[in-house]
Amino acid sequence: MQDESGKTTTRRGFLQAGAAMGAGAMLAGTTAAAQSADPLITEIQPWAQGLGDGVDASPYGLPIRFETDVVRRNVSWLTADVISSINFTPIHALDGTITPQGCAFERHHSGAIELAKEDYRLMINGLVDTPLVFTYEDLERFPRTTRTFFLECAANTGMEWAGAQLNGSQFTHGMIHNMEYTGVTLRTLLDEAGIKPEGKWLFVEGADASSNGRSIPMEKALDDCMIAFKANGEALRKEHGYPVRLVVPGWEGNLWVKWLRRLEVTDAPVESREETSKYTDTMADGTSRKWTWVMDAKSVITAPSPQMPIKHGAGPLVITGLAWSGRGAISRVDVSLDGGITWKEARLAAPGQDMALTRFYFDHVWDGSEMLIQSRAMDSTGYVQPTKAQLREVRGMNSVYHNNCIQTWWVKPNGEAENVEVS
Amino acid sequence: MSKYPKLLLIAALAFGGSPALAQKMGLGRAALPEEVAAWDKDVRPDGLGLPEGSGDVLTGEEVFSDKCAACHGEFAEGVDNWPKLAGGKGTLNREDPLKTVGSYWPHLSTVWDYVNRSMPFGNAQSLTADEVYAITAYILYSNDLVEDDFVLSNENFASFELPNAGGFFVDDRDQTELAAFGAAPCMENCKPEVKITMHATVLDVTPGDPTDDAPAAEVVEVTAEAPEAAPEVVAEAAPALDPELVAAGEKVFKKCAACHKVGDKAKNGSGPMLNGIVGRAAGSVDGFRYSSALMDAAAGGLVWDADALHVFLEKPKSFLPKTKMSFAGLKKAEDRDAIIAYLSTFGG
Q1: H-run or E-run covering B252
Q2: Cys-Cys crosslink for A182: which of A99, A151, A230, A246, Cβ 3.0 to 4.6 Å?
Q3: Where are the domains of chain A?
Q4: Cβ–Cβ below 8 Å for B81 and A166
Q5: Per-residue pLDDT tens for A256-288?
Q6: What architecture is domain A298-420?
Q7: A78-286 in CATH: which number?
């Protein structure tokens, strides 16, 4: 854009500055000298002269077109089709802790259905004094609560159990999102029906064709579970269960039934498909753990990572990631740059909240040499995120779900990163 | 103090409630018994929730072939990536265990419950109780767990135990993992050296950049530009398609997309790929194994023109009683119009 003469006048000056500015100078924090005047500054740009869109251009705004790569992605070979399937949150490109609904991962068993508020009914039946039916409007009249929680699929990182497989934090750790939910506690709703003393379990069921149903111990249901009709301030998206989904803080995502239609108080678990043949963890001897509901402490560096190579060369580098625990709040995150030989404490963006994502930063001055970067989360119960070797020692090689191992990215001198497994 | 309970009682009565309900909001209404019966269909391992009925293996084989085999295979062995329901015996302690009803599932009730509430895929809750008993019996037979004269009913159901019934134990992480993973973490000299033992790029199974995927929308744009480039082709094509109808058809096609693929990379799946289907002779996609019913119709000269597709898609089983396609049909004429328009955009 700039005319040639403009460049040549300052060319010599740039060469001199460049010669003086080795890696050492960068590490010392010396500000780089400009090669020539930046036309983005010296020339009047079209956006500084003309006019932008009017306020009626997009009544509901979408991300600007430069961000079209920050989207959910799926891995087609994982499932037989895209209806009973899953996609992944672009965590590599997000920051902060709240996941925007539009790019929060989806998992459906019979597709994302369209269920209007007028057609919505919630039934409470089973071991209750009065079986009840609520309309959506009824639910909005109960005392309301707003809380932020992560939702992690039990299969998140499952493809990595046998070895490093998918190259990107979106694919290895993107079956997670974190939203601020507004709704009504299950305790409030169940009290309305009156739980009989023998009611020890709650079977929760969705309205879609998969009629996904799970059994939840009554103690958990009454402790902190809620139904949600809003996420991040607005109505749930279709793909997340509009108009009403279940929120089961800290527990595996499959329990968070979407399009929730029924709460049945029972004296025993139903042992449905999703709590027997799926989401159970097979050990080396062939026996399997069931009812592994709580998601243990876990973390991942979201950038740099395979989809987020370092493009700026040596010098100041922000290493950042997410940490979470289904058992409580994140109390500390450590980062290693040498594959786990040495660890240093990262900086939490804010104190950890119970069962919600925590953002961490590790401010580093990179010397341009290769790194094996890892993060390790600790939670308020004292639990320390294990290595894959530690998990395999207990569970063997055949497990899939509930993999909360430490992740390694190999950052090469050119700034590219790769998913690797280390000794 | 003694005054207050009385006041509460009066207040509660004034609002039409009873003292016991004083804490309640009084929202919602009582569920009717027939409403509870309509939704409360889950079945437990002890048989609670099972309706009366029965089904035998041979009937099950027929129903399975008709309604399940398109995805799960004639012998419950699974097609493509769809779940395998049989086999895998003795593999649970080996590498890549095969988890099926016979090898892994602990309770037969789960099979009945899942088939009854969630299957067939795309036409859930369409089976009669007897059909579900029959399908369940056939799945047992496919796993060599019963003979071909076996009859399953609500009477003998609870007495049947699957091989892996004792193969599960309740989450023991508190005992087996928490202590080990709760030690003060090491900060320095945690191991003598580190070596990379595995690279994800070696497997090369990560999807490429989103722009590599060539979304269908771009394909449609190309066809829309075709008139100038190749007028002859357009002359052959049917009258110009209404883009709104095509877009509506793309939505409706989601019901079919589990089994049928269209577009550049379309391959046969559980159903044949459908590029060029409109106007093509029936049963003519290479490499797809059609039902004999469809091949008979093809031999009789069936051509999938818009009229034939209309009739077929309205109720496939009426048009072709023995078709492998387990799909209930598109009742609305506008849905059929839309899907035919959408399919017309994919040339052979």
Answers
A1: helix B243-252
A2: A230
A3: 78-286, 298-420
A4: no
A5: 999 999 999 999 999 999 999 999 999 999 999
A6: Sandwich (2.60)
A7: 3.90.420.10
